[in-house]
Amino acid sequence: MALTVETIPQGPVQANTHILTDTATGKIAVVDAGDCTDALKDRLNGKSVEYILLTHGHFDHILGVAALKALTGAEICIHAADADCLLDEEKSLCSWECAGQQTPIQADRLLHDGDKIVLGESVLHVLHTPGHTKGGVCYADYENRILLTGDTLFCLTAGRTDFPGGSDEELLASLIRLRNLDGDFTVYTGHNRATTLEFERTRNRYMRRIGR
Ligand SMILES: [Zn+2]
Ligand SMILES: [Zn+2]
Fold first, then answer.
1. DSSP character for 86?
2. Which of 19, 41, 72, 115 shows the smallest number of beta carbons within 10 Å?
3. Which residues have CB less than 5 Å away from ligand 2 (the ion)?
4. What is the rounded CA–CA span in Å between residue 174 and residue 45?
């Protein structure tokens, strides 16, 4: 079994949308949707999209969710602590950058730490990693060694903690948790390019500061 990942930057600040495909069944999960562009629609055309998995509730990751839901009927999953962002553009920070552009939509499933999301023959584990937001999560596929980190961990840096709900202490604890996962992972981040966990363990200034 395998899980493939294709990344399309979308939306007002080009946050990454990741298309996860379980190759055994062809079933798809879309991780974050800052928009629902033709590029995304083309790739999903005729496919079975089971989930819209959100790493957190900031506008740059969710502005396309309502359109993507209408297109696919997929189950919208977000951590309970960030679920209000889908309904309230103050909470998603949309009102700061692009007031009036967010279509409110209800989550279908509220996630908690330790939840499992079954996509065909693949399994994604939910890791609650607050710090950037209260309800930030990472999704880990231990079998296929894939980790999706949203705005918690980036290549050579980490997420901001100065927005409402952010916390330096929580972000640090979340980074320690990620660092302490067994083995290596390909890491797909919320912005910019992908990396690996082992590269970040040795080069990322936040992770280096934590020590081994
Ligand atoms: Zn964010
Ligand atoms: Zn972001």
1. G
2. 41
3. 15, 60, 151, 190
4. 36
Ligand 1 centroid to residue 56 C-alpha, Å? 7
- The structure's pTM equals 0.97
Rounded to the nearest angstrom, the gap between the alpha carbon of residue 10 and the centroid of all alpha carbons in its chain is 13
Structure token pair of residue 3: 């899980």
How far CA 196 is from CA of 22, 78, 126, 132, 158, in Å, comes to: 21, 24, 18, 20, 14
Q: What is the pLDDT of residues 23-34, one digit of tens each?
A: 999 999 999 999
Residue 125: which domain range?
Answer: 3-210
Give the distance (Å) from ligand 1 centre to CA of residue 16: 11
Tracing tokens 């495909």 back to the chain, one arrives at 21
- CA of residue 24 to ligand 2 center, whole Å: 31
What is the total count of domains within the chain? 1
Q: In this structure, what CATH number is given to the domain that contains residue 21?
A: 3.60.15.10
Measured CA to CA, the distance from residue 54 to residue 79 in angstroms comes to: 8
* Residue 132 CA to ligand 2 centre (angstroms): 9
